[in-house]
Amino acid sequence: MASRPSKRKADSKAEEVKPAAANGVVHTGKKRKLRPGVPSEGPSTVRWLLTFLILSIAMVVLACYVVYNGRVATREQHESRAANSNVTDSVAKKANNKLKETDKVNIKKTTKPPASKEVKSSGKKPAKEDKKKSNKKSSENSSKKEPSKKSQAEGERIVPRRKDKYINKTTVDLTNIPVLQWPIEPADPDRPFIIEILTGEKAIRRKKFKQALEAFEEILTRFPQSPRGMYGKAQTLCKYAELKHSNKYLDLCIDAYYSVGIDNVITPKDVRREALLRLADRASFRGKLQTSVKAWAELAHHFPDNQLYTRKVALTYIAAGKNTKALEYFKVAVTKWPDDLFSKAHIGLLLKLEGKFEEALPLLLDGLKKDEEIRKLAQFFHHGGECLTRLGRSEEARVLYAEGVSLGHFLSPWQRSINNEPGLHGQPWWLPGDTSYQNTIKLLEGRWETIKLEALGVINQLQHVVKGLCETGELRRLLLYSNGKPDNSGCSMLPETCGLIKSISASATCRRCQAELVAMVPGTVTWPAVAPSNTHLRLHLGLVVPSNSRIRVADETRNWQEGKVLIFDDSFEYSMWHKGEDSLLVLLSVDVWHPDLSSEKRKSLTPI
Prior knowledge:
alpha+beta, Serine Threonine Protein Phosphatase 5, Tetratricopeptide repeat, Jelly Rolls, 7-stranded antiparallel sheet, 55% helix
C-alpha cells in the first residue's frame, strides 16, 4: 500500500507551479510539474497576440483597398457620364463663368477709385474691398452656397437649380457656346429657352422622341414663333417617321419645316438654311416636288451667292416637268457665273428637248469635253448622241456612244438605257420559249380579231400625235395603261382590250410599263429610240399590217404579221417605218416585266 505524500512535499509542488500561474497561463484539471530546462509559456502568448494584430492590420488594409477602388470606379463612371451626356451642366458652368467675367467688367465700370491721400492714410485698399463685396453679392444672387476655394482656383463654380428652368437673357451671355447646333446671338428670340432646346436636342440624340417633343412643345407653348422650337419639333417628327416608316409623321415633319423655313419671318439665317435644306430633301423624297422647288427657291433668294441653290431650283423644276421654269433659272446661273459649264450643258439639254438641235449641240459637247460633273451623267451622252444623229452626223454619234460605254454609262453601243438593273439578260429579239409569257402570247394571239375590231372602231378618233419621234410622217397613239395604272380615257374607248390587259398581271402591275394602241400613217419613219430602262420587254401584236412595214432592233430587221406577236427589248436602239401607200399600220403594244426579275424586285422598283 503506497504511503500518502507528506504535506511539505505538496507545498513544494504548489510553489513550483505558482510562477507559471503568475505568467497568465491557466491550467485545468491536474497540476503538472515544470521540468528543469523547459521554458515558460509566456512567449507563446506574445506570438498569439502578434498574429492577431497582423491579421487585424491586414483586414483593415484590405477594407481600405476595396473602398478606395469602389470610389475610383464610381468617380470614373460619373466622369464618363458627364463627358458623354451632361451637356446641360457643362453649358451652365460656361454660362456662370461668362457671368463671372461680366460681373468683373461691370464692377470695374461702376466702382470709383478712392483718393490717393485716403489710401495712404488708412493703409487699406477700398477698391479691393468693394470688389469683394460686389462678388459676394453676385454669388449670393446666383447660388445659396459659397463655392470652395479649390473650385474657385480651378475656375469652376456651383450651378444653381433655377425654378424657372431657363437662364435669364439679361444676366448670361451664351454667344459662343459650341455645344448648340447654332450660336445664340444676344438678340436671338430663342435665348431665354436655351435649357429646353438643349434638353430636346439631347433627347433626340438618345432617340427619346417623346421626351424631345415634350421639350419643344413646352417652348412653343410659351413662345409659339420660336424658330428653334419649331425646328426641333420638325426634326423630332422626321426621326420618328423614319423609325416607324410612317408617311403620316413625315407629312407632319414637312409641314413643320415649312413653317420654320418659309412662314416664320423671325427665323435666324442659319436655322432657316438648315430647315429649308431638310424641307427640300424630305419633300422630294415624299414626291412633293412643288414644295421642294419652293424650298430651293427660298434658299436661292436668301443666299443669292450660293451657286448650288440656283442649280437645285432648276433641276427640281426639270424633275417636276416644268422645263420652261428650269431654263429660266439655268440662264440666271449663267448670267451670274459665265463659266458655269454645268448650267450651260443643261440649257443645251432643254433646248434639245424643244427640238432646237443646232443650238443645243455646242453646249452639250462643250460640257461633255470640259466638265467632269457632266461626264458623270449618262443622259448627256444619250442626248448628245441623239443631237448628232438628228443632224446627220451618225458616225460621230457612234463614237460618243462608245465613250459612254467605256465610262460605264451604257451596257453596250446598242443597249443604251440609263436606268439599268444589273444581272438581267439582254438581247434585241426574244422568242416565246425564251420567256415565261407563253400563255400571255397565246391569249393575245387568240383574241387578236376582237382587239382589231374594237381598235378599228376608234382609229379615226386618235388625235394624240407623238412629237419629235418621227423623221417623216406621223405616229398616233392611244394610251391604255401606264406605270401599272389604267388610263381612264383610253380604257373608256377600248374596254375589252383593257380588260384583257388587266388579266395580264406582268403588264397591269408593271410600274415601268405601258400599253397603247399605235397607228402609223403611210410614209412614216421614226428616229432611232431607246427605252429609259432595261426592266421590261415589249410585245407588238399586229392588227393591220400593210406591205413594206418593218421594225429594226439593234442591227436586225423584222416584219410584223397580223395576229402574231413580236417580242423585243426596247432598251436596245430600235426604229420603225411604214413606207406603204395603202392604209394605216395598226399595232397593240404591251410591255411586260423582264422575265429575269424576281417578284420581290418587281415590287421594289418605282416608276421612271
